[in-house]
Amino acid sequence: MQKIQKEHLYKVLVIGDLGVGKTSIIKRYVHQNFSPNYRATIGVDFALKVLSWDAETVRLQLWDIAGQERFGNMTRVYYREAMGAFVVFDVTRPSTFEAVTKWKEDLDSKLSLSNGKGVAAVLLANKCDQGRDVLTNNGIKMDQFCQENGFVGWFETSAKENINIDEAASCLVKHIIASENDMLQAEVPDTVSPQLNSPRNASCSACFRS
Ligand code: GTP
Ligand code: MG
C-alpha cells in the first residue's frame, strides 16, 4: 500500500533593519546564490523553500519584509498567521542589534499562536564573514539575550559565505513543529496527537525550548 506523504506549510517572517541581509539570506537559502549589490526591498517579497523533513515535506513560505516597514503600519497585516520568524541584524552595525528588541516587541505585540504563546523566533547575527564587532566589542552575552527576549536560538550567519543558514532554518522548523504539537495537544486533550517532532540532525547551537 502506498504511504501518503504528510505535508506541512509554514509561513515564516524574515524581519530586521534595513540592509542587514534578509533578502540575501533568503536568496542563499532558496536559490543558492549571492549578490554584493544592495537593492532595498519595497514592502514585502516572497520565496518558497521545500524541505524533506524525515518522511515528510515541509514548505516554508518566507516573507521577506522590508526593513523600512518597521516605521510603517503594515507589519500587522504581514505577520498574520505566521508560525515562525527570523530576526536579523548585521554584526558590523550596532544600531541594527539595538533594533532587534524593537522588531521582537513589534512581532510579539501583533502576533501570537492560538494558544496565546509567541511564535518561534530565531536570531541571526548576519555578515559574520566581515567580523563580529557587535558580538565582541559590547560583551553581549547572546545566550542570555535570547532567553531574556524570547528567542529559541541564535546563529552567526553569512549569506555571502553560506554559513549556518541551513542550520538556523532547521532550528526554526524544529521549534515550529514543536509549537504546532503543543497547540494540537491543547485543542484535543484526550487524544494522542501525531508525533511530528522527530529529532533531526539539526545542530541547533542554542535551543532553549527543545
Ligand atoms: P532591506 O530590503 O532594505 O530591508 O535590506 P535587506 O535586509 O534585505 O538586505 P540585503 O539582503 O539587500 O543586503 C544588504 C547588503 O548587504 C547587500 O549589499 C548584500 O550584498 C550585503 N550582504 C548581505 N548579507 C551579507 C553577508 O552575509 N556578508 C556580506 N559581506 N554582505 C552581505
Ligand atoms: Mg531586502
Automatic annotation (TrEMBL):
The keyword Hydrolase does not apply. It is a lipid-anchor. Gene3D superfamilies: P-loop containing nucleotide triphosphate hydrolases (3.40.50.300). GO terms for biological process: endosome to lysosome transport; phagosome-lysosome fusion. InterPro entries: P-loop_NTPase, Rab29/Rab38/Rab32, Small_GTP-bd, Small_GTPase. Pfam families: Ras (PF00071). Coiled coil: none annotated. GO terms for cellular component: late endosome; lysosome; membrane; phagocytic vesicle; trans-Golgi network. PROSITE patterns: RAB, RAS. It is found in: Endomembrane system; Membrane. GO terms for molecular function: GTP binding; GTPase activity. Keywords: GTP-binding, Lipoprotein, Membrane, Nucleotide-binding, Prenylation. The keyword Membrane applies. The small GTPases Rab are key regulators in vesicle trafficking. Belongs to the small GTPase superfamily. Rab family. This is Ras-related protein Rab. It comes from Scleropages formosus.
